[in-house]
Amino acid sequence: MPQGVAREGLRPPAGRPADPCNTDKTILLIGFQHQGNLGLGYLASTLREHGYSVVTCDFEAEPAAIVATAARTEPIIIGFSLIFQFYIERFAALIRTLRAAGMACHFTMGGHFPSLSHVETLTLIPELDSVVRFEGEMTLLELADMIGAGKEWRDVQGIAYRNGQDVVTTAMRPLVDDLDRFPYPERNFEPESALGHKALPLLASRGCARTCSFCSIQTFYRTAPGKIVRTRKPAKVVEEMRLLHDERGITIFLFQDDDFPLFGSVWRRWAADFVRELHASGLSRRVIWKINCRADAVEPDLFAAMRDAGLYLVYMGLESGNEEGLKVLHKQITVEQNLRAVEILKEIGLLFEFGFMLFDPSSTLASVRANLRFLRTILADGCAAAVFCRMLPYDGTPIKDELERSGRLRGDVCHPDYEFLDPNVTRLYSALSEVVDVWGWVHGYRALSPQLNWAWNEIAILEGLFPSMPDLARYKRELSRITQASNEVLFRVVEDLLDMVEGGRPIAWTTAMMDFERQQFLEQLLEARNGFVARHQQILLDALQSAPVVEAATA
Ligand code: B12
Ligand code: SF4
């Protein structure tokens, strides 16, 4: 953008230099791009709107390729996006490599961990010049203006930097009040593809009104001044969906909001308006969408209306199946509410996925048993695969502070951990980790449970975006059977381990047996899924018109 041309879209906050400068300069952004990084997307579109040239690199790319890109583009700033705390050492290594390769420009970093733990970040990665704290668009833009113009950047609002042995923070930058003032985020990554349909992430809101003790999001959006939750205008969200649909052929939208606006009368009205806009745009018959929400927001009428406007998948952080666990996690929800939410979604025919912490700092053998009973109840019909994890105490969370106060905090920044109160729970957890290869069974994209859930996603996509298929009901029954059987093995192992720890009963399970079981289920899944797709290849291809060939499952 030539100098002197007014910058549109975002009004500069008070104190921002009025004239654009150095707008021919390049900013290089590096972050985790799997499934699309909207944070980087918003930063990139904001910078570009103001005339900067922006290059984005996937953090998972070969370091040599990243170094080559940096050398070629000669950025004035390299911005690193650290959204997962446990990646900090890997980022530190990449940053060292870039410095060793001679990159002398300004290095900054943003994301949850750097925002909340800026001192630790600057200490752990001395090669960084600054940290951008909290919402980054306006701060990075101003930093770029200052650095590009060779002016003093240390006064920019919303940053932290080192001054000798000290870390200095500048005044906190308020959150932008109207999210629709941001340009739509850049999405210069390949959309995920499912049965020839393309999926992209988007946001209808930022922030969360709740205060779960294990979650850094609530602290992130509460520490910076401004409204804790900001929703976009429904019409603008639908306009963005329409553009993505018309220009990139996107038919599956993945809302990544922490808590999709549904709770309470104001947000229920928001959701109803959104549904109305979708119908008015004609998109409700052509696209499907997924949301994240809390179980206490699920109610039949609104969710049925959303289903009729294309909602196909609801992700809920159920987190615990016992009252004490829910209390310690500060979910402000009851087991009964969790169960009721699942029941409603099943009644109205909506697919659901969930987050669940089988283990948390309050775990006892009895609470693990209660959690298992809960999982058995909600998954009895094989409607979804069992997933669970151990709660981890991330920086900036109340539960981490509490564990630290009580002397139970263990591990380090990359592997934050804690001690259970009951040594038997520790024994149970380590025995379980030994017998079940969690990365093969419950975590990671290629693990069994995620693959089963992916197959369930495909079924919802078939129901939402394809004409009815003759034997879909049969395939669903087969998938339920495999899911049920695989869940059952997982539950039995945990139960047998509980019996071993409690009563000294020896267990029959070995790692090799579990690997064998897992492989069997994966093969059954592949056979059922690929068989179904092969039988319906023609219908699928006709429905997609000139669509890409339906890809095989990757198990
Ligand atoms: C979408 C998402 C994912 C996607 C990732 C998509 C991607 N490539 O970005 C997927 C599904 C892959 C994913 C996976 C996981 N996720 Co996740 N995820 C999210 C979620 C819901 C939204 C991210 C998002 O789009 N935010 C919206 C954008 C606009 O905000 P932002 O990313 O914060 O960026 C802004 C600022 O932080 C800042 N900023 C960020 N980067 C930078 C860089 C620079 C240079 C600057 C200046 C500023 C800046 O400016 C941005 C714009 O304002 C977040 C929650 C959240 N609200 O962020 C959890 C979250 C990031 N995930 C989390 C976790 C724990 C996970 C998993 C470990 C879950 C699991 N058990 O498997 C995995 C880990 C995956 C892995 N790497 O192994 C935690 C991270 C906790 C932590 N403190 O480390 C979060 C915070 C959820 C939570 N409530 O605790 N996740
Ligand atoms: S509801 Fe979700 S986003 Fe909100 S505080 Fe709880 S875990 Fe975090």
Structural topology:
Blueprint (H helix, E strand, L loop, with lengths): L25 E6 L6 H12 L3 E6 L4 H11 L3 E5 L6 H13 L5 E5 L1 H5 L1 H7 L5 E3 L4 H12 L10 E5 L2 E4 L22 E3 L2 E6 L2 E2 L9 H8 L6 E2 L2 H15 L1 E6 L8 H18 L6 E6 L6 H9 L2 E9 L3 H6 L6 H13 L3 E9 L5 H14 L10 E2 L7 H8 L3 E3 L4 E3 L4 H13 L2 H4 L6 H18 L6 H32 L7 H25 L1 H8 L11
Parallel strand pairs: 1-2, 1-3, 3-4, 4-5, 9-12, 12-13, 13-14, 14-15, 15-16
Antiparallel strand pairs: 5-6, 6-7, 8-9, 10-11, 17-18
Helix pairs in contact: 1-6, 8-9, 13-18, 15-18, 17-18, 17-19, 18-19
Cobalamin binds next to helix 1, strand 3, strand 4, helix 4 and helix 6.
Can you tell me about this structure?
- The protein is of the alpha/beta class.
- 45% of the residues lie in helices and 15% in strands.
- The chain has 20 helices and 18 strands.
- The chain has helices at residues 38-49, 63-73, 88-100, 112-116, 118-124, 137-148, 216-223, 234-248, 264-281, 300-308, 323-328, 335-347, 365-378, 398-405, 423-435, 438-441, 448-465, 472-503, 511-535, 537-544, and strands at 26-31, 53-58, 77-81, 106-110, 130-132, 159-163, 166-169, 192-194, 197-202, 205-206, 230-231, 250-255, 288-293, 311-319, 351-359, 389-390, 409-411, 416-418.
- Strands 2-1-3-4-5-6-7 form a seven-stranded mixed β-sheet, with helices on both faces.
- Helix 17 packs parallel to helix 19.
- The protein is globular and about 65 Å long.
- Bound molecules: cobalamin (B12) and iron/sulfur cluster.
- Cobalamin binds at residues 32-39, 42-43, 79-81, 83-85, 108-113, 132, 135-137, 140, 203, 215-217, 256, 258, 389, 394.
